[in-house]
Amino acid sequence: MAMPLDVINRAKLRVAEFRLPSLPEGVAQRLDKRLMLLAMALLIVGVVVVTSASMEVANAKHGNPFYHVIRHLIFLTMALGFAAVSFFMPMQVWRRLGGVLLAAAFVLLIMVIVPGIGREVNGSMRWIRLGPINIQTSELAKLFMVVYLAGYLARRLREVRTHWWGFAKPMLVLVLMVVLLLMEPDFGAAVVLMSAALGMMFLGGVRVTQFLLLICVSLTSIAALAVSQPYRMQRLVTFMDPWAEENVFDSGYQLTQALIAFGRGEWFGVGIGNSVQKLFYLPEAHTDFVYAILAEETGLLGSVVVISLFFLLAWRIMQIGRQSERLEQFFSAYVTYGIAFLFSAQALINIGVNTGLLPTKGLTLPLLSYGGSSLIVCCISLAMVLRVDYENQCLLAENNKPVTGENLANREVSV
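Below the sequence we write its predicted structure tokens.
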């Protein structure tokens, strides 16, 4: 039976109206290509080095040399999909969801330490299993805490700068989250989160006395936690002398094997795919110690290039945050600053561990290491930064000149 013509026309109209949001004319060309190129470069390096570092282990453990590579590419596809969705979410939506995201972070961190829900790996309860994938809750918690803290600073900036209570309230929330992270235990994630929060509070303009007090309390807490558990104390002892006879084949084994990888790499490396340390000598070669394999195969040159890419990425993110602050988009600015600190702190700690500058900690290298949760959260974070830059460009385009007026303080930009 033929459908009435008016019904067909209405259906066509609805289909025509249903489309993805489009960028205003002239703004698409001003999307931050530098940030996207830096991120893509690191992602491509990550695919190459994970492929090289994981094939022998995957073949021995799973009977398929491409097992980890296939999963890494699946995670990358998922990460880019989540990033695309995140880009189309206005920053005002993230701001309104700050409290909900904080509550979700606490729920996830509590769930992961509950027996029967959390999954234990190497003595730590850091993952929740959902079908074929494991979710590392600390990765989500770090980003959600940054979003909440950015919203708090944007709402109560004057109170934070002038009253101790305004400064103390978000710190109490941070302490509770750090305690939950340490119960997993995930000491590395706790340090990264504290570093990001410290950076955000400093850029928020807290008084020097408050900031120095926070620094002292944080350093004292880290030192106390480092010596509170025998295995952490042993890591510190091993870090001081990993080549000692009692350490080299025990708690210092990972570090010594990583240092051997750096030594074999010399100036220009042994060539992609030619690493020896990945052949069951260096544990976690495709996750926590992927940088050591990269150094062995590409040498000092490749190592410096990757460090430079991370530096440029963090610098560009900070520039975007600074632009948001000049436009008086304070929530966007503090989110961007927090993401820059998360990337910087985690990359510095991972590279420091790989090179023997810091005691061994289980932290992935952002955008490079194998791991679905880390990869997805990193891509979502970068998409949020791109969104911030896009909204900045929209404000500039609307005014057709550099914007500094007070009338833009509360303006919302949406697609």
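Residues 11-22, 402-415 have pLDDT under 50 and may be disordered.
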